[in-house]
Amino acid sequence: MNNLKQSIAWWCFAHKDLQPEPFLRKVAAMGYEAVDLVGPEYWSLVRDCGLKIAAINGHNSIEKGLNRREHHARIEGEILANIEQAQKWDIPNLIVFSGNREGLDDTTGAHITAEGLQRVAGAAEKAGVTLVLELLNSKVDHKDYQCDHTAWGVEVCKLVGSTHVKLLYDIYHMQIMEGDIIRTIREYHPYFGHYHTAGNPGRHELDMKQELNYPAIVQTISETDFDGYIAQEFVPLGDPEAALKQAFDLCTVASA
């Protein structure tokens, strides 16, 4: 067991009434160590508040991703530029996307996605950055997205063959697509470089109104000796700060 490093997903909590600096200082005071998916205009502020940046997007477009060779040159350029920024700002993870199927079969899609990642894996290794291919549900939020099952993502990682190409295991998304969260973590955790959380259904707080047993899930992650970040990526229905404190405490207790 090890205490997990926790992050928050900026987009879930950023809104027009949010005052970034006071909010980030409160997040740091709660015990969070990092922020996910925060725009570069806030990177200096994040660091000034004693936080790190855990993950940013490695390239544009969830839908037009790595499973099409016609996107590879564009994505390669974007990822290489973001690897440079990640190295400069000590950002450990760049999130990458398969793209939508659009009729493409899963076997072919996996091979093409791996080809695209092989183009940039060496640069990621040299920079000490991990490219994390995000698992998303294609049932509710991202219709037709190809990397929608753990086994498919694992196959891509195997085809690439780099320790710096892993999966972003999003617990909310995979509960929708396949469930069996704890068994999956135990079996495939070597391929998971980053985690996202949210309650299901609804993508809200990690409370008793949703179906996932987060204390048991977090304990399982901790038992794998995972040394990356678990990021809270839920959209709070109630007070954001109270929800973040509750989620932090839950994960801290479960991983103790």
Structure description:
The protein is of the alpha/beta class and 256 residues long. The protein is globular, with a radius of gyration of 17 Å. 45% of the residues are buried. β5, α6 and β6 form a beta-alpha-beta unit. Helix content is 44%, strand content 15%. The longest helix has 22 residues. α8 packs parallel to α9. The protein has an eight-stranded parallel beta barrel, surrounded by five helices.
Q: Main β-sheet: number of strands, strand sense, barrel status?
A: 8 strands, parallel, barrel
Mean pLDDT comes to 97
Strands, total number: 8
Distance between the termini: 7 Å
* DSSP summary: helix tally: 10
Q: Helical content, roughly? A: 40-55%
Widest beta sheet: strand line-up:
1-2-3-4-5-6-7-8
Identify the overall geometry: globular
Strand content: 15-25%
Q: Which structural category fits the helices and strands?
A: alpha/beta
Q: Give the H and E element order.
A: EHHEHEHEHEHEHHEHEH
- Unreliable runs, pLDDT <50, ≥5 residues? none
What is the CA-atom radius of gyration, in angstroms? 17 Å
